[in-house]
Specification:
By secondary structure, the protein is an all-alpha fold. It contains 5 helices and no strands. Helix 4 (64-176) runs antiparallel to helix 5 (183-195). The longest helix is centred in the middle third of the chain and has 113 residues, at 64-176. The relative contact order is 0.03.
Amino acid sequence: MRTMKHFIPLGALFTVPALPALAAEEGQGEGFMGGLAYAASDPVTFVAFLALVVFLLIAARMGAFKTILGGLDARSSAIAAELEEARNLRERAAEALALAERRQQDADKEAEAMIDQAKADAKQIMAEARKDIADRMVRREALAESRIARAETEATEQVRRAAADAAISAARRILSEDTGVDQFESAAREIDRALS
C-alpha cells in the first residue's frame, strides 16, 4: 500500500513549510495571497487546507475527476442526443405540417373544381330543360293548331253534307209533290230554307 507521501506532489511539500513565513511577510493582506497567508498562520485553517489538498490529491489519484468528467461528458452526450432527437422531431413535425397544408390546399382546389363543375352542370341542365319545354310548347301548339284545322275541316264537311242532304231531300219532296209548280224554283226555295 502506498503511503501519503506518494500522493502529495513535491511542490506542495516545499510550499507548506514556507507558508508561515509568507504569512508573516504579507501581514494579513487582501486577495488570494492574503487568504493563503491567513490560512498558513491559523493552525486550524492550515490543517483544514492541508486536508482539502490531500483529499483532492487522493481523489485525483483514484480517478474521481475522470469519473466526474466522464459523467459530465455522458450527461453532455445525452443532452446532445436529446437535442438532436428534438431537432429531428421538429423537422418531422414541420414536414408533416407542410404535407397537411399541401393536402388542405389540394382539397380546397378539388372542392372549388367540384363546385364549378356542379354550377356548369346545373346551367347546362337548365338550358336543356328550357329548350325541352320550348320544344314541347311548339309541338303542343302545332298539335292544337292541327286539331283545330281538322275540326274546322270536319265541321265544314259536316255543314256541306248537311246542306247536300237537305237539298237532296228538298228536291225529292218537291218532285214527289206538285208537278204543276216550277220544280226548279221550288227546289231552290227549299234549299234556301234548309241552308238558313
